[in-house]
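User: quick one, fold this
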Amino acid sequence: MTGSEKAPAPAGARKRFWKQASVVPEQDGFAVQLDGRPVRLPERTVLAVPSRPLAEALAAEWQAAGLTVGGYFRPEDLPMTRIAGSMLERIPGARAGVIDSLLAYASSDLLCYREAGNSRLARRQRELWSPWLDWCQDTFGMALRTTEGVMPITQPDATMRTLRALLESLPDAELAVLGVAVPALGSLYLGLVLVKGPGTPEELVACATLDEREQMAIWGEDTDVTDRIAMRLRDVADAALFLELLRKA
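Assistant:
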């Protein structure tokens, strides 16, 4: 490549076109603007939220986007904007589908499938996983089945009804957060702890990655695995921060 040639854009990237991201008060909240123009989501909805701290965090990630990699930015550079977009555009028109997708984790949930016997891994699963399942049962009043091995189980009908009613009662923001956290954690129940309970992102990701970390304790660290764990932690931490800042409205 000669000095006059430009580096190609990374896959899926767009060129930064603004100098300054800012927050502007509106009637129902706070909008993010780029050089005085509102940010619009894919369906043309203005990026505006009811919380100034959240709007400032959204503006900060837009201000940082595209300052490296030749001035290009990608969707993954705007994680909280993606959650806001789900809250503002995707979920209002597709709540039933979103809830069905989350409920699909209930019977295949990570926390419900345990190592058989009394191995170190089985003991660690009981130590780390059982308290959160107990919290879900005590908090939401539902019985949860677990099994040893990989043979599929189903949760009681009453449990599924309780879970559906719970998800249907959640605001769009909490469903948007679950839409990020549940796939990252591999667990609907850990996602509910993040949204409604006392668990931190670090604690919950430690639960979700127990098997991988135990394998590395035996065979040694694998950078591919540690990179995936770090990515999952970033996703869950972004989701938790989004909700924390939104609640400061």
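User: anything notable?
Assistant: Residues 223-246 form the longest helix (24 residues).
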